[in-house]
From TrEMBL:
Protein name in UniProt: Cleavage and polyadenylation specificity factor subunit 2
UniProt keyword annotation of Nucleus present: yes
Family matches, as SUPFAM superfamilies: Metallo-hydrolase/oxidoreductase
Record's keyword terms, sorted: mRNA processing, Nucleus, RNA-binding
Location of the region described as Disordered in the Swiss-Prot/TrEMBL record: 695-731
InterPro entries per the UniProt record, alphabetical: Beta_Casp (IPR022712), CPSF2 (IPR027075), Cpsf2_C (IPR025069), CPSF2_MBL (IPR035639), Metallo-B-lactamas (IPR001279), RibonucZ/Hydroxyglut_hydro (IPR036866), RMMBL (IPR011108)
Subcellular location: Nucleus
Protein purpose: CPSF plays a key role in pre-mRNA 3'-end formation, recognizing the AAUAAA signal sequence and interacting with poly(A)polymerase and other factors to bring about cleavage and poly(A) addition.
Similarity remark: Belongs to the metallo-beta-lactamase superfamily. RNA-metabolizing metallo-beta-lactamase-like family. CPSF2/YSH1 subfamily.
Amino acid sequence: MASIVKLEVLSGAQDDGPLCYLLQIDESYLLLDCGWDETFDMNYIEGIKQHIPKIDAVLITYPDQPHLGALPYLVAKCDLNAPIYATVPVYKMGQMFMYDWVNGHTSVEDFDKFSMDDVDLAFKRVQSVKYNQTILLKGDSGIQFTPLPAGHMIGGAIWKISRAGEDDIVYAVDFNHKKERHLNGCVFDNTIRPHLLITDAYNAMYSQKKRYERDQQLVTSMLTTVRDGGNCLIVIDTAGRVLEIAHLLEQLWSNEEAGLTRYNLVLLSYVASSVVEFAKSQVEWMSDKIMKAFQQSQVNPFNFRYMKLCHSQQELAKVRSPKIVLCSNLDMESGFSRELFLEWCSDRKNTVIITGRSEDRTLGSKLIHIANETAEGRKPRKEISLEVKRRIRIEGAELEAYRRMKAEKEAETARLRLETSRRNARLEMAGDDSDDESDDDETLANAVAVVTGMKSKENVNQPSQNQASQVNGNQENQVQPALELNTHDIMLKWEHQQKSSFFKANKKIYPMFPYVEEKMKWDDYGEIIRPNEYKTEDTIAQIETVEYKRESTDDGEQIMIVEEKVPTKCVRYVQKMEILCKVEFIDFEGRCDGESIKKLLEKTVQPRQIIIVHGTSEATRHLATYIKEKGIVQGRIFTPLVYDIVDATVESHIYQVSLSDALMSTLYFQPVGEAELAWIDAKVMKKAMIGDRRGIDGEKEDEENSSEKESNDVEMQDENETEEERRKRLKKRKQQKALVLDVLPSTNIPSHKAVFVNDPKLSELKQIMQNLGHSAEFSGGVLYINGIISIRRLQQGQFHVEGCASKLYYEIRDYIYQQFAII
């Protein structure tokens, strides 16, 4: 591959953090995933933000937070304008992941990273693609990419990136080669021996149980719990692996011999109904087995008969126990899984089953550690300290302070509206006949409503949900100012308007009450109706103090639920808890294990170069060492750290240089077809990159940087490197010099032979001669002009002209020269 290929690791290298990588191919930049996690690290976002102006496209592999969690923030807050590509299920299920994530946080805290509107804005920019669909990158780079099935989650993709006439680059992380109930395995048939493979080592040292054993363990744990009168909490993700587990449990419940129908099966999520509906509409993206069964029976496998869908803990409370609840999120740092765990963990009859791993230091990872120690026969420590977040109603003095503040704010708003209406009335009376299309009529109507006392004191004091987060529990008591009725002095205004003026008035102005003529507003369907004008005092008070919700009954009927809107505030505290319930970890992640990854690399993919990302340092070193010992990769093996830049260019003598302005002004370009060529005699210099204040190099530090040679061995970071040494190394990398071509003194420019660039054909010369009025004929592969001059082609780009020295001979030779760009 003759292109310059570099990969900058922005997150997800030698750790289990979110995945994000910037791939450079010459002057084009592709952002591979943009995950985020519960830490909401803004330093990581700043690292992406500085590259946003040059990103040409974003490629998303899976719909969960580790792969696209930062997308709403980057689009809404960082102005990411590049096209975003994902498969149809990743596009739809990704929205469900983000909705559930936002709801999980806003229900217990004031979450300000991004909102539902930001999620909608981000996914409006996503361009949905299908498997094996080739997308050409905008511009003239010639880069194209194709999504291939990756397994693991519905719509998951392996991205094959290529350029015309060059080898492939394959980005494949978290893939699964095994067939599952609802998904087929990954496909590497079209990605054999790529130039570069970017893959992960997350499961390099991990071995899985067989599917039968995992299913049996899950069923046994559930039955043991519910038969003892306890509840079972199964922790799953929002819209990915939940489909596999939900499909399995629905099949178990449909088996009458299992006797499970006496126990309730529940899917608890903020977006449970939407996830199921999307799953019903995406059967063509699922396994061949599901497709075949659907075609034969015409029954959608995700048309659940036994699983109940709940969207709040209030709905869950209506379901009788014992029950089995599938609950999101896997890390248990937010959402229903954390809330339900806090409620159920103190009961010995209950069981918590974790179905997937999460990052270190999360509640989910702590529970997996407890489960593993219990399985090994050790006695784990079951006392943990958890931060509890709650959104509670405001009561007592806080509620009174909130109502006073709200009343004062409404009074101030009414006063400003009244002043605006009076000012507009003065302008109208002064003879302002301009046809203003503003909405002053609505403003005046609201002001008059305040003056005449249409809004009662009870209505003014009613709280609103939107202002709940602004309440401070320690606010001082404030006195509500009284609303004074304003009057108009008609005679004073009339006398003021009768003052003499230099210009003669067009009409007389008589005293009158202030009046603003209403301008009727019309749309395509007639007069615009404002619902506020038809509300009575009681209706206004009722609307401001209640909230309407639509819920579904067990029969599928939609009913309206009226809930009172009460102001709330967010509190948080640390609580020590003893975990008395049973905790188990059953792997339903759907990823390749270590043995399968090694076989795929050795027998199928066989990349020429490999970059190993996303995995612990130990797992990364283990996989890199195995690849080196087996000789799987002929080129280099890279194991970068975060913020490292990997240069995976194959050709050892390809460098990226820029031309100085002084040199550009001295060049003489010759047109060759649609391109232009020029001969350059210049000197190569190193010049400071943007952000480095130093000029031309020559410093010892840069000489040391330039003298560093890359080895074909495993390029691995020393695990004993201190943080200070790492910062120095990164600082040196940022201070590297760029190669620049500068003007060479004229005395040092060597002479060179003229270069003829082009490959004209004899048939083209024949047509040119005939257009000039000469006789041109072929005979034995030789072109004869007027029977006296012959043109013979010797080799590519060279012609032999033979004839008598005459004016015609030199004219023909000049015409042949004109077919070349001579530099």
